[in-house]
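Quick one: structure for this chain?
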Amino acid sequence: MKVFRCLFIAAAAIAALSGAQAADVAVKAVKRVTDLPFFFVIDDRVTFSYLPTATDPGYFSRRPDGSINGKTAKQFYSFTHFDAWAYGTNFINIYMSKSDHNDPAMPCTAAYTTITGGYATCAGATEVYANIRSTFGWNQIFDTKAFSVGLLHNISFEVGVDALINNTFVAPSKRGFVAGLQFAFDLPYKGYFNIAPLYYKEINHNSFTQCGLFGPGVPAVTCLADGNTNKKGTWAVETNYYMDLGFLPPSMQFFSISGRAAWYGPKGNQSEPLAGLGVGPFSTATKVEFNSEPIRLTFDASKAFAGPKYSHLVDVWVAYRYWQNKFGLGHNAAPGACTLTVAGVTTSTNTCTESSLYSGITLKF
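Got it. Here's what it folds into:
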């Protein structure tokens, strides 16, 4: 009996100990879940960059020899935010740019020229732009790994908004909306490549279509009452990538490359919904727009000079930008903006294609 009693007491003690350990594990598990932040990745950065040969369609000046100067220098002040949470990601980019006098603010309609043709020195234009993209991963939504196959990392639903205001005479007030899918792929050295086929819809403003500017006009027939354009929905494809140059020797692993490219289909007539009426110089059809920064080389200065603990706290970079048919305006069409005809001779204003090296510095906080 004593033997069975000892065995019973020992078993009870083991059970109690096991129960305590199980409870402790359960408490720790609950604590881990409840302590997990809603956003498990948050990345905020500010950037100053300078683009020496930017363009703005329709804004140019004449050189002393009579040739057209369609280039304008721009300073950019940017804030970017990226976060990841249980079901996806969010990306926000907001910038303010300041142009030189070749891209003037109102009331100038061109460099040193007002709507009446008079002379004026107007300040360079100021533009504010915001871009938001959010994804919702299928692996996360359906609690599976079925959408991770080979290099394919995930498939996601994607939605986003673009917004732009500018104090030029045209006074654009863009609101763009996208929705579609994103396919995310893995690249070497913890890199990635994303491609997103999307539906795109744009609403904007163009003062040159506004009734009263060139006479009374007929609202909705020859002009728009308030100058607000409503472009046709179209397709879009947006891509971006990033990769550390991990193949470099350890003493040189301070460099990475990244880039983006986006195509936006024709959005109907420039003066939608006045499409097809052939009214005025701003009535031509829009073209496929290609907006890209194919390569950016980044130097992790803080890691190089202060150690891995401070990686990407301070980045210095150089990039190349190429933007064809800017805002959908055909670079060899769109009279009055992309081309100019004088005495029967048509020349390019060199303002609807942007091709420039530029550089900047980014601080993470």
